[in-house]
Specification:
CATH class of the largest domain: Alpha Beta
CATH topology of the largest domain: Trypsin Inhibitor V, Chain A
Strand content: 25-35%
Number of helices: 4
Structural class: alpha/beta
Number of domains: 4
Shape: rod-shaped
Oligomer: single chain
Helix content: 10-25%
Largest sheet: 5 strands, mixed
Number of strands: 18
Order of helices and strands: HEHEEEEEHEEEEEEEHEEEEE
Amino acid sequence: MLKKYLTKALLINVLIAIGIIIVLLIIVQSGLKSYTRHGESITVADLRGKSFEQVKTILTDNHLKWEIMDSVFDVKKPPLSIVDQNPKPGSKVKEGRTIYITINATSAPATEIPDLIGRSSYKYAKMQLESYGLVVAEPVYRPDPHLNAVIGMEINGKPVTRKTKVSKGTVVTLILGDGLGNSRISVPYLIGLRYDEAQFKLRGYSLNVGARVVDDGVTDTSAAIVYKQIPAYGQGATIRVGEPIDLFLSKTLPAGIEVNPDLYDIVDTIPAQ
């Protein structure tokens, strides 16, 4: 009888324990579902191209967090607009998830003009400039014996050389040789001209500026005075179309240098033989 009673009591206790475990499992499972919002998700909006302020509002309204992961600069996109995001648009995430965004910077970082003059073809030079974050305009051709060789670079019509610092996104014009440099002209007279005047005159004669030797004290190169040139002007002195003339510049005309304005417009073309 006692054995039967103990067996019955043990069975009841076991059943009660099982019941308690089941109830606890139901409570835990219900709590986990509530905590993880089981079955509920948020579709990530496409944030690309939107302003940073718009994105903050969108993510806040959807109970999502945000963090700037990186910044880049794209001249074609508005400053502080979203360039990329992670997770990608259309992804399903839980409430409270952090969305990592890449933002377009407000100003362009600086870069240097690479060394291209006299050593590059147009295709290679264009590729190099673009890899530095620069924009390449349509090339300009000038007389030079070497077809499509880079003989100069300009920004807003002004010559630039290697290591010149500019902002990324700056438009650079490549000056290329047209392969037609066989004609010769008499060496023009440039003494006494300002540098910008000499440069304009050389372009008009399809000649190029070579080396610029600038004296100490010159603060504005364009207004500096040409007091020497190589090759020099002289009776019978000629130069091939497209070739350079080296210019020596000073703030004022040095003592002993005489200027003859009557020689400025005397330039004769000698046809190619």
